[in-house]
Give the backbone structure.
Amino acid sequence: MTDHEQIEELLAGYVLRSLSGEDAAETDRLLSDHVPGCLSCRETLAAFQEVSADLALDAVPMDPPETLLPRMHRELEPRARRRRPVQVFAVAASVVVVAGLAGLAVTQNVRANNGRQEANALRAAMDTASMPNANLVPVGPATEISAPGQEFFYLYGRTVPQPAPGMVYRVWLVAGTSASFVGEFIPDEGYVNLQVPFDPSAHDALWVTQASAGSDPVAPTETDALWQAAS
Amino acid sequence: MGVRETGREDLELHRRLCSGDRGAFDELYRRYASPAYGLAYRLTQQQILAQDVVHDAFMALWRAPEAYDPARGAFRTFFLALVHHRAVDTVRREERLRKRQERASNLEPTHGEDVAEGVVDEAFMGVRRREVRAALTTLPPDQQKVLQMAYFEGLTQVQIAEQLQIPIGTVKTRTLAAMKKLRRALQTEDDS
């Protein structure tokens, strides 16, 4: 068996969502390191994904309950008008990059630049956004995505402008007038998807500021906040 | 309506969805709710779970339509994969569904089976469904079985090997052979 046949075996299992353990980990590695640069594997993956979608059609189509669409209509609030209920945040230890093609956390100097990581991170954020009672709050051009019972939220955006040259964005959690620094980032071509852990405690707002890269974080005041999530 | 025309319409609906067009959401729901619900029900075997799967998939689409990248394939491929993934995750969370899965229908085409009255089944999907079922009949039973267990029962390859009491390498080999054969068969159908 050639290496590519082994890879195809893994890709077949991957699109069927049937891998586990070492095979899943190996496939994640391949999707990061090998597949993006291998035309043959990219074509195989795309073809298997189409086959997987076709398999869905073997299931007999069924009308969902008539109550489902009205239920969703009630949740189709204009995205920009959503307001977060009063919500408390705790001191966050760090900003963690969970995605993207894009999100670059200067704090950790990590760039998640492969499709698999991007997809996993995006899916994680969207899973939170899909939870009942999820909160989607505008933070400037980005969105804070949180859900009851989760000890983290996502700062997600697709059209976040680049900071000025030599500058970075900084994320702060705020209690009253006191802001705690949690990390910094530079979007990549507008894309940001950061997971910010928190505990349910005193913080009641999220601020994003802009500062010189490499400078010591100095606690801002509200007037320094470029964007903020209103509580 | 052909697959390509439907694909173009889906792209336009997705473009409108990205700008918050509720009408586009409703049209995509009209097109995909029935196959999505049928798929979710086949995996979960419970209406309430299937309903939640479909709800979550459509709401995820509404909240982040950018998750679909048209450059990576058809909308149908993206959305039904999203539904399948969520259904598999649901099945794995709901261990109590295992017993019900044993009653699930297998992959063999169900002769004489009609789409339920009232179900919106786009013409192109009806045609594709027949092509898929025809392609499935070309698979040896042992390959059909591993596909059934992986795709419609949400089992991992390790679990399949344990249940069938065969080496996991055999599960992998059968899975790959089945996927390649379906790929060839369905590509041919695409080209015809």
About this structure: The two ends of chain B are 15 Å apart (CA to CA). The longest helix of chain B spans residues 168-191. Chain B has a mean pLDDT of 82.
